[in-house]
Amino acid sequence: MPSTFATVTVASQPHLRFTEPKKRAPLGPEQKRERKEARETKQERIDAEVSKWFASTMALAEKLALDFDLKPKYFHDIFFQGGARMVMHQQKLNPYNAFKSEKAAECRERGEYKDAAQLHIDYFEEYQGMTDEEKDELVERWVANRNRNVTLRRATPRAKIQDVANIVRNMKLLMCGLSTRIGVEGFFCVVRNSADFHMAPQWFFTSRELEQYMPIATRKKWVTAEVGTKVEAFAVAGCDVLSA
Predict the structure, then answer these.
(1) Contact 141, 98 (CB under 8 A)
(2) Bias category Basic and acidic residues: which stretches (predicted)?
(3) pTM of the model
(4) Would you call 93 exposed, middle or buried from its count of C-beta atoms within 10 A (0-12, 13-18, 19+)?
């Protein structure tokens, strides 16, 4: 009598085991205190290193001033550009490039497509025969055409936040450079005035002591984050006191 074999049912799909993610236990008072002390210690080390660098830079400026018979401010301006390097100086447009661009457009309108080398061969003599006034008009036409056909970036929420971040970074550099060169203190707060995107208020103080002085200056409780939130709400409400 033949033996009877039991068949084994094989699952067509693997079984997935779902487990609840482990929740981190809340930090106790002692752990919070230790982490706070660690952050403060780290910040103190950073401040010490930055102060050391600043002192050595000032000493170098004094030394160079003596060596080259110049004022220390001359080297301060070199060391601390104050945002000058952020400005990109664009050179004046070459009239010949504007000429070739115009000729290339004329060729495309006729259904002809010529590269830069062929344009040079066909039209360079014509360009040489032009007066300076005609070349200036060429440049003006090219600039006007570029301005008419400028492509605007789409203002997506992410693009707005990135734009703000870039501007805030530049503002910080300008403030730090100004503070170093002539000796000023100040602060700024940048908030959104639209509900189209979310961005935390952007605060900057030239010194920690200035921020710590704010409760004394206002004679009220000052929490920078809370003040920023209130300013943001006021701006989103259209700077309307009754709506904020």
Answers:
(1) yes
(2) 30-43
(3) 0.41
(4) middle
